[in-house]
């Protein structure tokens, strides 16, 4: 029901309780009795100064005349009482809230009640922010790498400063060296902390950024190991969707992914893929020629291989013609950015300029712990052909982990995204890194 | 004869500070700064205590730890793991793979010294 639908009824109730005639209340409030009558029968909406004037005459808080506001207040206070209850551990402590007297409390002390409710709302909002930041620290490669950098520098400073602060003499040579280290590390810490603050300032709304529909879909796919036995066996996507608890936008995205999955599974059954994989290896072009299915579909099927098949674990990224990532199955050592754009050097993006050509390239993920991959990428048209209109392209990039010993001498060094890439000389750099100049 | 500590860490100024405090305490300190060949270096030097950072260029400290515990005479080598991440799962992983101690950065020099001494019962 709308917030103030029953405000008129409550005015009437309060007026009757106060033993006041309708004409008297109308006169004191500066309106005609007929207009007050319309209000009391909920045929005219009321708010602002008139509501304040009537509440003043009736000696009640305006909020008490507003059904919605009161209900919201009561509900919030009830939540606060429940939260307080959850926090109890059975030990003797403060008495529990008197929930039976909640409405009386709100009615007699509306100011305190609103203050309490407001505190509860702020606390809830802060808890959500803390959860979001915790999640961000856990999953955001930007933050994780930056914080690692800072903690290492802080450790060096702490150890060095402690040595210098200790009583007793240190040889001049060591003392000078530690002073130099301290100066060097403090500069580094200043640079990296400023860069981190700049990065955090660009994130206007943490909670809006986290838990986006695309991330919800990614989490759902990940929780199923990127494989759906139901669809492999020709089942309906509704059977898969009934297990999901996603919002409408996420559900829409997931339906798109699962529909394509079902089509892929029908066109290339897993058993056929595994047989071909055993014969020709994970080269999507060779597999494509073997099973007579287009390379992008082969890549998607490779990414859907269940871990139990023991046939390999592959990463997959897909982007649309704008370069926006629309599918992200990351690998442990090849994260795919959740925020902002990816590394422009990826073959995924090169493929967009060479439709229907399967590209391959050995990659080295830049960082403290460089990992190696063989990447295959292809951009293929989607949708039906139209007269005089260029096709819409979607590019796929399959990532096959490689042992360091199998890597060529000069793999292409790529990053995740510019913000956390330490490479200083890169034609693809869009923005400065938040890391120090180099590892 | 001085006991030997091998420190595998990639941050040069941390290497310098820890080397200093351990050397001053009478330890013979060797250092190494990448993960690629860390397992081989440990087996070659056979220290009395190993201090091993988790985030190393080339290879994760956890992978090195797992290798060392799998054989090659380093199954019972006292190992102190250092990490900038102090989450429970990191600690659990270190314990699972056989680390004797786990220390989160930033740490105090005295903590490192005490941990190293305790690991060899000094």
Structure description:
The complex is a heterodimer of chains A (439) and B (122). Chain A is α+β, with helices and mostly antiparallel strands and 439 residues long. Helices cover 52% and strands 10% of the residues of chain A. In chain A, a hairpin with a 4-residue loop joins strand 1 and strand 2. Chain A is flat and about 95 Å long. In chain A, 31% of the residues are buried. The model of chain B has no long low-confidence stretch (mean pLDDT 91). Chain B has five helices and five strands. Chain B has 122 residues and is an alpha/beta fold. Chain B has one domain: 3-Layer(aba) Sandwich (Rossmann fold). Chain B starts with a strand and ends with a helix. Classes of the chains: A alpha+beta (439), B alpha/beta (122). The interface between A and B is medium-sized, with 26 and 25 residues.
Write down the CATH topology of chain B: Rossmann fold
- In what range is the share of β-strand residues of chain A? 5-15%
CATH homologous superfamily (4th level) name of chain B: Response regulator
Could you estimate the helical fraction of the residues of chain B in percent?
A: 40-55%
The number of helices of chain B is 5
Gyration radius from CA atoms of chain B, angstroms: 13 Å
Strand order of the largest sheet of chain B: 2-1-3-4-5
Largest interface: A-B, 26 and 25 residues
Number of distinct helices of chain A: 19
What does the average pLDDT of chain B come to?
Answer: 91
Order of helices and strands of chain B: EHEHEHEHEH
Oligomer: heterodimer
CATH class of the domain at 309-439 in chain A: Alpha Beta
Based on secondary structure, the structural category of chain A is alpha+beta
* Strand order across the largest sheet of chain A: 2-1-5-4-3-6
Uncertain stretches of chain B: none
């Amino acid at each position: 029901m709308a917030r103030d639908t029953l405000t008129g009824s409550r005015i009437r109730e309060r007026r009757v309780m106060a033993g006041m005639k309708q004409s008297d209340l109308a006169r004191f409030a500066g309106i005609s009795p007929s207009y007050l009558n319309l209000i009391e029968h909920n045929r005219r909406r009321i708010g602002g100064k008139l509501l304040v004037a009537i509440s003043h005459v009736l000696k009640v808080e305006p909020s008490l005349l507003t059904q919605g506001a009161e209900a919201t207040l009561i509900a919030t206070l009830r939540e606060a009482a429940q939260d307080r209850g959850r926090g109890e551990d059975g030990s003797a402590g403060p008495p529990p809230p008197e929930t039976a007297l909640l409405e009386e409390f709100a009615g007699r002390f509306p100011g305190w009640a609103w203050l309490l409710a407001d505190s509860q709302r702020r606390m809830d909002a802060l808890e959500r922010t803390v959860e979001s930041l915790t999640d961000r620290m856990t999953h955001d490669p930007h933050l994780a790498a930056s914080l690692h950098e800072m903690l290492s520098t802080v450790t060096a400073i702490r150890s060095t400063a402690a040595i210098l602060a200790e009583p007793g003499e240190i040889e001049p040579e060591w003392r000078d060296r530690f002073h130099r280290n301290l100066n060097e590390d403090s500069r580094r810490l200043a640079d990296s902390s400023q860069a981190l603050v700049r990065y955090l300032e660009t994130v206007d709304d943490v909670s809006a950024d986290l838990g986006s529909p695309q991330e919800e879909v990614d989490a759902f796919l990940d929780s199923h190991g990127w494989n759906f036995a139901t669809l492999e066996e020709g089942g309906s996507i509704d059977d898969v969707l009934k297990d999901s608890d996603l919002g409408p936008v996420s559900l829409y995205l997931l339906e798109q992914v699962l529909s394509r999955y079902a089509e892929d599974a029908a066109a290339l059954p897993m058993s056929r893929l595994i047989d071909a994989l055993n014969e020709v290896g994970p080269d999507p072009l060779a597999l494509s020629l073997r099973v007579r299915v287009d390379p992008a579909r082969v890549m998607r099927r490779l990414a859907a291989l269940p871990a139990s098949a023991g046939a390999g674990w592959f990463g997959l990224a897909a982007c649309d013609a704008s370069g926006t990532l629309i599918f992200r199955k990351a690998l442990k050592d090849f994260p795919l950015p959740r925020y902002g754009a990816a590394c422009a050097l990826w073959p995924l993006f090169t493929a967009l300029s060479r439709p229907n050509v399967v590209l391959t390239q050995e990659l080295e993920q830049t960082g403290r712990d460089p990992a190696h991959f063989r990447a295959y990428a292809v951009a293929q048209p989607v949708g039906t052909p139209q007269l005089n209109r260029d096709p819409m392209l979607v590019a796929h990039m399959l990532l096959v982990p490689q042992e360091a010993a199998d890597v060529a001498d000069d793999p292409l060094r790529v990053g995740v995204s510019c913000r956390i890439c330490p490479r200083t000389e890169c034609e693809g750099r869009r923005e400065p890194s938040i890391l120090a100049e180099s590892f | 004869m001085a006991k030997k500590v091998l420190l595998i860490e990639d941050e040069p100024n941390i290497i310098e500070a820890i080397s200093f405090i351990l050397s001053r305490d009478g330890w013979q300190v060797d250092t190494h700064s990448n993960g690629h060949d860390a397992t081989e270096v440990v087996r070659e030097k056979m220290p009395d205590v190993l201090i091993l950072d988790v985030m190393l260029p080339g290879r994760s400290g956890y992978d090195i730890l797992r290798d060392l515990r799998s054989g090659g005479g380093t199954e019972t080598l006292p190992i102190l793991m250092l990490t900038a991440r102090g989450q429970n799962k990191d600690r659990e992983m270190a314990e699972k793979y056989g680390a004797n101690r786990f220390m989160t950065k930033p740490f105090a020099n005295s903590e490192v010294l005490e941990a190293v001494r305790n690991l060899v019962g000094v």
